[in-house]
Amino acid sequence: MTVTPASRFVGQSVPRVEDQRILTGSGRYIDDIVLPGMLHGVFVRSPLAHARIDSIDAGRARSMPGVVAVITAAELEGIVQPLQFPMEVANYLRPVFHALASDKVRHVGDQVAFVVAESRYLAEDARDAVEVDYDPLDPVACMEHAKDPARPPVFDDVASNLFYTETMDVGDPDAAFAQADRVVRETLVAQRVAHVPLDPRGGVADYRAGTGELTYHATTQAPHNLRQALAGHLGHPAEQLRVLVPDIGGAFGQKALPCREDLVACAAAKLVGRPVKWVDDRLENMASGGHAREETLELAAAVRDDGTILGVEVKMELDQGAYPYVGLLSPLFGWIVRTVIGSAYRIDSMRWALDVYATNKASYGPYRGPWAAETLARETLIDRIARELGLEPVEVRRRNLLRPDEQPRKLMTGPTLEGLTSLASVERAAELVGLEGFRAEQQRAREQGRRLGVGFSTYIEPAPGPPDYWTSIGFPAGGERAVARLEPDGHLTVMTTQAPNGQGHETTLAQVAATEMGVPLEHVRVLHGDTNAIPYSSMGTGGSRGATMASGAALHATRAVKNKVVSYAAGMLEIAPEDLELADGKVSPKDAPDRGLSLAQVARAVYSAPPDGEEPDLRSAVFFHAPRGGWSGGTHCCVVEVDPETGVVTIVRYLVVEDCGSLVNPAIVDGQIRGGVAQGIGIALYENALYDEDGNFLAGTFVNYLVPTAMEIPPIEIEHLHGLSETFDEVGYRGVGEGGTIAAPAAVVNAVFDALGNPTDIALPLTPERVLELVEQTAAMP
Amino acid sequence: MTVEVTLTANGEQRSAAVEPRCTLADFLRVELGLTGTHLACEHGVCGSCTVLVDGASARSCLMLAVQAAGAEVTTIEGLAANGAMSTLQEAMRDTHAFQCGFCTPGMLMTAAEFLRDSSRPDERAVREAISGNICRCTGYESIVKGILLAAERAA
Q1: Alpha-carbon torsion, ordered A144, A149, A150, A155, to 10 deg
Q2: Residue A544 has what pLDDT?
Q3: What are phi and psi of B90, to 5 degrees?
């Protein structure tokens, strides 16, 4: 049979399916869900970083108007199982912890009790009446505290606050440093940041005692993983547990994993016998919703005077906060940094060390490009090398990046690199920004006392990454399922494991399926977020896997249905399948198009009386396993002006040259890139989930946690390269969800440092105060 | 203690008995079922809950329902009827302005007021107009383009 050309919807910026409801106020987010008899739950949260709980007196709260229950750790005993990472991992401490704090609180915002009442207002009234008697302990407020044996352990059941440690030599670092003309060093302190989805976390737990069925409406990126965690930790039969995902107003990794609140809310619904809703307020989301990126890196590069990098030394320290995320191993992100820090560069040797510390802070978790420290570290180090050698930073990249004829090649840590256009992206970015002309302009500006700077940042991201990437990081993620079903009216339903929260999967997967099936876009519905309907995935939306994995799965599921349709139609028309063609919603003999059957005719025939010996419906389930995987990547270029009087950094120009293969929907791709860059600019210049030395949280509102506005984010110019063929791995699409946030911080930092000269160590964010320090420091330099 | 609050929401007179401390946002969302208005910070910074009160933009999280008694309130549900779209909404769709949709209602109400009061705005003016509305997904460029497109189409 003939395949309909795969170009009808794919590759076009078709309007988003989601926009009809989003733009008219008809979206349905977690706080919009109202169930009959629903109660409202709010958490009593710790005002202290570290303290023993001597007693909890909920007597007065329980007697207040509208209060149905006040639940503490004591009430959950035997109902919610204690939490612990389920597998032993060498050198990794695995504390036991609880859904509600029992013996002590471990960070500001730790959850101590759950008040359930008839309205949110009444629940909050009672929350303030719950009396918790705390006995303060010395806080472990930073990694320096965690290293101090005089400070108490965050978890009493494990002896130390050093939760994980590893060292590793890759290649021959001794030889690399022995052969070097010089060693260039850098210290990089990356601050804690928060995800800040505008729609906070939440859930509505609905337990029916009569049937034993527990339905949990949840803001999750991974519905099946949440269902499994709830079933396991609540001891609830999985077949009686359904997770439903409403519209989600942003996630960025914050909603990737089950949280302790989910367990409490579900247990509460079972205890009180009525539906219970919980939704973070902003302070809760900022203080308890999880953080990311707090890492310190000591870097050294063994370089030749011509800029050739022979090897690197990387010492990484990671502040994982107090509680591990449910089911997450915090060293994982360090492992990814270790695996990909060589990127598309010809770097063959590394001395590596990783230490992970527990502190009295919110959990450290996945945030858009969770391993982004590798790009920030490497790309700022490369600029440091360039400045110390008096070379153009682009030239150092040019001399060390892999040429196309050197690929495929293995990263020093194992994963296969192929089809990378990193070098071309640097050249193109330099051309677009007009580097030579810029240097002349920069010089003229400097003579007038103005400080201009340009910064580049080159990266690759595993999106989804080749199979040997996943084995290298020790986290085999596998493929992805999809189910396609032709409905009796000839329309198509595609069931995906993705749990979209802004990515537009209802549009992009429909584009892929409609193109494959040869039907109008409006005849395809993408169904997601219902564990009773969608196929299994332990991951859901994350890891920039959607473009390759979900598209590939949707494509193959649709193709399988198409083959069934043709097979049935062949029987109905008494003609060989290879003599049929499926196009424009009809299966027709190639030589007699007017004798064709519509998809609806075939579907109705099959659904009313499936032929003997054939499968009973037009449904296909597939597991797509991108055999080669592959990378996205590119180069960002940022031009800034730094005001030496005020320390304010203004981004004058920002451009992205990137390669994610073929584009399903270019407008959606560009939106992902721009949004990612905006978050990366926030990390470089504004955002800081700051704690003081006593562990008090200082960033609980949008007044002190600065999310960039339309005044700070410039227009972002984008150009696409296409290093992979459209049929690489059967689908040529690569993910773009994370690259913007991964690459942008280094581009901005490099631009600021280029403007200032060569300041010493990097500490983020580059606030006006910090920039003024750097101005002063560089003014004193010879 | 409750008080009866009557206001006009999207052209329709609506009443509900609420506590005096009930915010306008909660009144709209919980009492009137107009859940298109979103709450993201509840301290007046992010702009997601922006509605028009007697034609002027207001943060419905910082206003009490009783303060809006007798007022004409317009929410995102009032921009166009029965699933249709206004020029602004169509322009936003055509520029792929939004991603997750959570800041969208506030952004649209701010933009609707801005477009009503300014003719042929430039990019700078648009950016200033929406500088009190946080979007975490888009980097703003697509939203700015959408508002400029709506202004062009309305001219």
Answers
A1: 90
A2: 87
A3: -60, -40
Q: Which residues contact A277 (CB under 8 A, 6 or more apart)?
A: A30, A31, A33, A35, A38, A39, A40, A41, A202, A203, A204, A205, A265
Lookup: tokens for A360: 């009295």
DSSP track, A709-776: -TTTSPPEEEEE---S-TTGGG--B---TTHHHHHHHHHHHHHHHHHH---S-EESS--HHHHHHHHH
Q: Which CATH number fits domain B3-77: 3.10.20.30, 1.20.1510.10, 1.20.210.10, 3.10.560.10?
A: 3.10.20.30
**CATH topology assigned to domain A291-472+628-779:** Aldehyde Oxidoreductase; domain 4 (3.30.365)
CATH architecture of the region A19-27+479-624: 2-Layer Sandwich (3.30)
Q: Residue A4: pLDDT above 60?
A: no
- CATH of region A33-137+197-251+255-288: 3.90.1170.50
Asked if B36 and A24 come within 8 Å (Cβ–Cβ), the reply is yes
Contacts of B145 in chain A (CB under 8 A): none
Residue A782: the pLDDT is 57
Pairwise CB contact (< 8 Å): B102 & A197: yes
- B78 secondary structure, DSSP code: G
Per DSSP, the residues of A370-439 read TTTHHHHHHHHHHHHHHHHHT--HHHHHHHHBPPGGG-SEE-TTS-EE-S--HHHHHHHHHHHHTHHHHH
> Looking at CA atoms only, how far is residue A507 from chain B in angstroms?
12
- CB B130, CB A710: distance < 8 Å: yes
Nearest residue of A to residue B18 by CA position?
A: A121
Q: Which residues of A touch B41 (CB under 8 A)?
A: 282, 701-702
Dihedral class, residue A253 (left if φ above 0, else alpha if ψ from -120 to 50, else beta): left
* Helical packing angle, B87-94 and B141-154, nearest 10°: 140
Chain A residues with beta carbon closer than 8 angstroms to that of B46: 198, 702, 707
**Residue ranges of chain A that CATH labels 3.30.365.10:** 19-27+479-624, 291-472+628-779
Residue A673: which residues within 8 A CB-CB, separation 6 or more? A656, A658, A716, A718, A736, A739, A740
Mean of the per-residue pLDDT values for chain A? 95
Are B3-77 and B87-154 in the same CATH fold?
Answer: no
Predicted TM-score (pTM) of this structure: 0.97
pLDDT digits (tens, 9 = 90+) for A196-228: 999 999 999 999 999 999 999 999 999 999 999
**Which residues lie across from A41 on neighbouring strands?**
A116
| CATH topology for the B87-154 domain | DNA polymerase; domain 1 (1.10.150)
Residues with Cβ < 8 Å from B41, sequence gap 6 or more? A282, A701, A702, B48, B61, B134
Structure tokens at A740: 């913007």
For A248, which residue in chain B has the nearest alpha carbon? B100
Residue A315 CB-density burial (10 A; 0-12 exposed, 13-18 middle, 19+ buried): middle
How far from A422 is each of A386, A401, A445, A634, CA to CA, in Å? 18, 7, 31, 5
- Reported as a pLDDT band with limits 50, 70 and 90, residue A475 is confident
* Mean pLDDT within B123-151: 98
Q: Contact A478/A618 with Cβ under 8 angstroms?
A: no
Cβ distance A711 to B127 less than 8 Å, yes or no, reads yes
Domain ranges across chain B: 3-77, 87-154
Check pLDDT > 80 for residue B8: yes
Q: Do B40 and A249 touch (CB under 8 A)?
A: yes
Do B137 and A675 make contact, defined as CB atoms within 8 angstroms?
Answer: yes
pLDDT band at A664 (very low <50, low <70, confident <90, very high): very high
ipTM of this predicted structure: 0.98
Contact present, A244 and A218 (Cβ < 8 Å): yes
How far does B65 lie from chain A, in Å, by closest CA? 14
